[in-house]
Amino acid sequence: MKRLLKSIAVASTTICLGLGLSAAAFAKTDISFYFPIAVGGPITKIIDQYASDFNKDNPELNIVPVYAGTYQETIVKVLTAHKAGKPPAAGILLSTDTFTLVDEDAIVPVDGFVKTDADRAWLKGFFPAFMLNGQINNKTWGVPFQRSTVVMFWNKNLFKAAGLDPEKAPKTWQETIDMGKKLTQKDASGNVTQWGIQVPSSGFPYWLYQGFSTQSDAILANQDGTTVKFDDANAIAALQYWVDLSKKHNISPAGVVEWGTTPRDFLEGKAAMIWTTTGNLTNIRSNAKFDFGVAMLPEGKRRGSPTGGGNFFIFKKTSPAEQEGAYKFAKWLTQPERAAQWSIDTGYVAVSPAAYDTPALKKYTTDFPPALVARDQLPFAVAEFSTHDNQRVTKALNDGLQAALTGAKTPEQALKDAQVEATRLLRSYK
């Protein structure tokens, strides 16, 4: 019997070798990788190629991308899978989801995998501004991957037609108003055919608002994510300014402006200036039939923008082999050369200074200087708004913002009501 079993084993090995297989082929560790698709472009093809390239370099691992919808849909799917005991090994989620993921005990700190000098150098190599949302209680829970700031795009042709210098975007709130009035066009019936400026207020209204609030010198949440200051006088002034762009100055669409259609409105000449993520840079560059510029957001009391975008997280209820594989993939994804190419392909900010020293990104930014604007805005950037119970607290703020923009409430009342609700939700975390 022993001879028979030995003969079968030898025969099996011979067959495997004959087929070009090895023992390692049967020991692959699958690494499920949830990825949100939130910005237009051939991103799935890029991620698929990354997975293929990584798998070739690391035959013991098998990255399996799962495209989970928007950021909001992805966090829901991840937490549902976590509670069922079957989470992905890794995923890209909003950096602002960190408090939620830690509170749900869904992720592990990256620090636990950092063991060598090379590991420590890698972790210290990211832009400090991009680490703000990923570090809690002296632990690093996520590392930056597709990150952004809010930037302004302007149509140089429409500026020239309005008698404005096509090479100069507004630098201040007042200049935005003055230029916006010259850029807003109406037809014979009085209907607006071209808006001076368009700032989206669906999808991520809190994020766009945080541009205004930062410029108004208001910080909306404390670092511990336990307290908010929506009713701060500077925060109210910021929302009043946003509302006034449409209600008082008539240079921006009234009501809720769609996040997804704003870049298209810009490309179709319906808006002369827009605010959106730098993640739309490659999309706009590829599709604009006119000269355009990219600028830092205009200054109020100060210059500023929130950071934004997604971090790479490693999930807890997975095997040690999956977690180690996910960590290896995180390092691979964020190497300078790869981060540089990702920035070129998508428009997101490369996540480390070293990426901007690569030949590829040096050449790209020399040929296309607007790609440096979001990076150069980082010294003025603040952490994206995030708290414990983040989805419900953010919803309270978003509801208030939209109530003010639609005229259902005054900016002051809208933010005071949001403050009451957020304080209630955060009471147990203090």
UniProtKB/TrEMBL annotation:
Looking at the Swiss-Prot or TrEMBL record, what is one Pfam family this protein matches?
A: SBP_bac_8
SUPFAM superfamilies recorded for this chain?
Periplasmic binding protein-like II
Family annotation (InterPro entries): Bact_solute-bd_prot1, SBP
Q: State the GO CC annotations.
A: periplasmic space
Task: State the UniProt keywords alphabetically.
Answer: Signal
The leader peptide range reads: 1-27
What family is this protein classified in? Belongs to the bacterial solute-binding protein 1 family.
Q: Please report the name of this protein according to its UniProt entry.
A: Carbohydrate ABC transporter substrate-binding protein (CUT1 family)
Record organism = Jezberella montanilacus
Q: What is the lineage of its organism?
A: Bacteria, Pseudomonadati, Pseudomonadota, Betaproteobacteria, Burkholderiales
